[in-house]
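INFO batch 0412 | record 1 of 1 | parsing
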Amino acid sequence: MPDGSMPDGDRGCGDRLRKAREAAGLSRADVAARLKMPVRVVQSLEEEDWSRLGAPVFVRGQLRSYSRLLGLTTAPMMIASGVAPVEPPVLTPRTYTPPVKRFAEQLARRFVYIVLTAAIAVPVWLATRPHLGTVAHDAAPLDVPTAAFGQSTPGKPTAPVHQEPRPLVASITPLPVHAGSSPTLSLRLRGDSWVQAYDGDGKVLEQGLLHAGDQRSWPADGVSRIVIGDATAVDVLRDGAPQDLAPFRRANVARFTVSSDGSLAPAVD
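INFO prediction complete | emitting tokens
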């Protein structure tokens, strides 16, 4: 076996491997059997055909094994091969973030979330506020029989009793409300309920949450359809006479139409 020194005229690791193998009296098949590699790999190493051997890390490993088998110094062979050594991956350390900066970033994200939520919620609240802020005195009841008996209208002071002409009180009986005028339909609330009322043209007369003690009244020919969210909390009166809502209730919601004479009928959805 050679002692590992190479003449100056020998250039390239492949030629050195071939000459050292021949000097040792070995064939390529002998080298392949000893190194447990295919003969074509031994041929590629001697011909310096690195493209057939794969990644540089495998080329350097096979060169090292072949050189040691023939007693050649591995370092000069690696240099002569021109195959670059495998560089270890460069690990980039994570940038350290101070706790104060992390807290500031979290606070900024939460602030952005609050601003976006407010930008969406506030317009929706403003859009629905007119429907929820209905006040009883904004729509005074038009209950003719009640006014005829001198009872006060919500939001207006009660007239003194001594100013009521007594002949007017005595003449209520001969002057019925139905004579020459439409019957009156009234809603009197015993509890909170959502109420919707529409006229014959579909215009909204009332839409909002009413509370216990509130009262609404319309001429029968001025209202065409009514929806009551909680039918158990509302009394419907026709000229002061209670009306039965049972035929118009479904899941405690009453929907009905009103004819010009004040009679009720189921609403067709």
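INFO post-check: The chain has eight helices and ten strands.
INFO record closed
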